[in-house]
Write a structure and sequence with these properties.
single chain; six-stranded parallel sheet; three-stranded antiparallel sheet; globular
Length: 276
């Protein structure tokens, strides 16, 4: 879904918004919930059945000169937060939401499957929540090395290293690989939590008896709620570094090249600048 990670500068406002906001740099939460349904009323607006979300048909993404959003979903950012980091608050928000649901707290031991951008951000988020041991797995040694420099404390090669028996407090899957999910679950200790973030197969065989006998709590995540203020604060305080993920910069007319760049070896995040 390209075009849902965005930041910008307010060019105009509606009649109900303070005109003093024009010119402000903002990070945009790319969704518009109805605010009146059962899920919205319960504070779970990410589960609103009528939500409108950038880059989710029929809603266009942000590969454009101008976009619109509700005023309270455009968050002012301080000068210490770059435009690029502000745009990447969207993927950070998914990981913050995952860490909240994983109940990560100071002293937690966490396992993350996948050392791509999703896993790297998840590792930084877990560290910001206070995790002291953060294991990350992947099959690419270069990604594992990068993860060790940016959030993880232990790197394991998924082809050769077993994670079963680690007895971590939480497992976050950022890979979507069925085998990684099964192995990760067996790395979780009693009463631990499993959070599925990566998109993979619709159906995955799970070790049900292991989950039952250890009373493991398993959940998926679907977007986020109320994460932007925390994300902005973590970036401003230097607890999360998103600028390290930007490996390519492109003009709006080069959007196709930007999308292809993300699939190349060594590339993490490509940023498109509509004003160029």
């Amino acid at each position: 879904m390209p075009g849902l990670e965005l930041s910008g500068r307010i060019a105009a406002v509606g009649s109900a918004v303070d005109p003093a906001r024009i010119g402000k740099r903002v990070a945009v939460e790319p969704q518009r919930p109805c605010r009146t349904c059962k899920q919205c009323k319960a504070g779970r607006y990410n589960l609103c059945p009528d939500i409108e979300f950038y880059a989710t048909p029929p809603i266009d993404g942000a590969f454009a000169e101008y976009v619109t959003i509700q005023g309270d979903f455009a968050y002012d950012i301080p000068d210490s937060v770059s435009d690029e980091a502000a745009a990447l608050i969207e993927p950070l928000s998914v990981r913050l939401w995952a860490c909240e649901r994983a109940d990560i707290r100071p002293g937690s031991r966490v396992l993350i499957a996948g050392a791509g951008p999703i896993g790297i951000i998840a590792a930084q988020a877990a560290r910001a929540f206070g995790a002291t041991e953060i294991y990350i797995t992947d099959i690419a040694e270069d990604r594992l090395a990068f993860a060790l420099d940016h959030g993880a404390t232990h790197a394991l090669n998924a082809r050769t290293d077993s994670v079963e028996g680690l007895d971590v407090d939480a497992f976050i899957d950022a890979s979507g690989a069925p085998q990684a999910v099964r192995s990760g679950i067996k790395a979780v200790g009693p009463a631990g939590r499993v959070i599925l973030v990566g998109l993979g197969a619709d159906d995955v065989e799970l070790p049900v008896s292991y989950i039952q006998n250890r009373e493991i709590w398993l959940s998926g995540v679907f977007r986020y709620t109320n994460t932007w203020p925390l994300a902005i604060q973590l970036i401003a305080d230097g607890k999360v570094d998103l600028d390290i993920l930007v490996t390519g910069k492109f003009a709006l007319a080069e959007s196709e090249a930007a999308l292809k760049a993300g699939k190349q070896a060594g590339q993490l995040k490509a940023v498109v600048y509509p004003g160029r």
